[in-house]
Amino acid sequence: xxxxxxxxxxxxxxxxxxxxxxxxxxxxxxxxxxxxxxxxxxxxxxxxxxxxxxxxxxxxxxxxxxxxxxxxxxxxxxxxxxxxxxxxxxxxxxxxxxxxxxxxxxxxxxxxxxxxxxxxxxxxxxxxxxxxxxxxxxxxxxxxxxxxxxxxxxxxxxxxxxxxxxxxxxxxxxxxxxxxxxxxxxxxxxxxxxxxxxxxxxxxxxxxxxxxxxxxxxxxxxxxxxxxxxxxxxxxxxxxxxxxxxxxxxxxxxxx
Length: 256
What we know:
Elements: H1 14-31, H2 49-56, H3 58-78, E1 87-91, H4 101-109, H5 116-125, H6 134-143, E2 147-155, H7 159-169, E3 175-179, H8 187-195, E4 206-212, H9 229-232, E5 239-241
Parallel strand pairs: 1-2, 1-4, 2-3, 4-5
Helix pairs in contact: 2-3, 3-6
């Protein structure tokens, strides 16, 4: 019978044979490079605290509902004086009506920030859910006889899927104005809505309220307005701000 490969020669004592067999096996493993090694799995990157707060905290949902409840109560006070008039409210889209935190989560998982291609793909998915309180507020404005206008800095090329996303979540917008190329300033669009030149489908509108998550979502305001007591006095009366600690004009390094 042929001797098994790597077995010790005949005549070697049994104990010695065992030692030699183990040594041969070790040498064979060494020649083959040893058992395969599994590459270490990199630890998951911690998510930004602001994003975790927006996605997981009860406080964030409480604040958005609180803001929309206050805006609803105020518009109900203003509406009786507007009976028979053409009036409405203006809202921003992102982080005011539509929740993009899932997009932010995807980008954080990739260790990457906002990019035009990834943002365009997200918008075209029409997958953003509604911010808590937004749908009920816009429904109430319509019930009171007002119009709902969305003024967003999403590119004009993305206005179609933006309208589709709003419809999908139940926000009935009478007009959606996206950003014309190279014109991020919303004030000309605010003025066009008020003059009645924004769309042939809408007359001039008296704007009862503005809602947004960025100071630039409100007429004439910028980060420099934080020290303007008169401008700040309009919040809670005609201006209503939603929380967004992730990005905005307060962080000039962000684009979205």
